[in-house]
Design goal:
Blueprint: E1 13-18, E2 21-26, H1 27-46, H2 51-77, E3 80-82, E4 88-90, H3 91-98
Antiparallel strand pairs: 1-2, 3-4
Length: about 100
């Protein structure tokens, strides 16, 4: 059963948490962002970047890292571990408590 979400329409969304805002990106948008990051990195090594390009590169890298962290946290939320004392702890909850 499909509940009117992105999966119903064949679109995969990734969540990016940046400055406490949730931004939804499709896989295609994420791929385009990665391609632009790589393009700017190559240009930076060859000829240098303008001030605007350097700012864009910093912003894109921040968004990419925020996306990576959000995905990692969602993966941790799905993992439960049995501790030595027999208690079962969700890694996502454990991670949020300690960091």
């Amino acid at each position: 059963m499909c509940r009117k979400n992105a999966a119903c329409y064949g679109v995969t969304l990734t969540y990016i948490y940046l400055f406490e805002k949730r931004i939804y990106m499709t896989e295609q948008e994420l791929d385009e962002m990665i391609a632009r990051i790589n393009e700017l990195a190559h240009k930076s090594k060859k000829e240098g970047l303008t001030e605007e390009e350097a700012m864009e590169q910093t912003e894109l890298r921040g968004k990419y890292i925020a996306n990576f962290r959000a995905n990692f946290r969602r993966q941790l939320d799905k993992i439960d571990v049995k501790e030595a004392d027999g208690t079962i702890v969700n890694l996502g909850e454990k991670y949020r408590r300690n960091h």
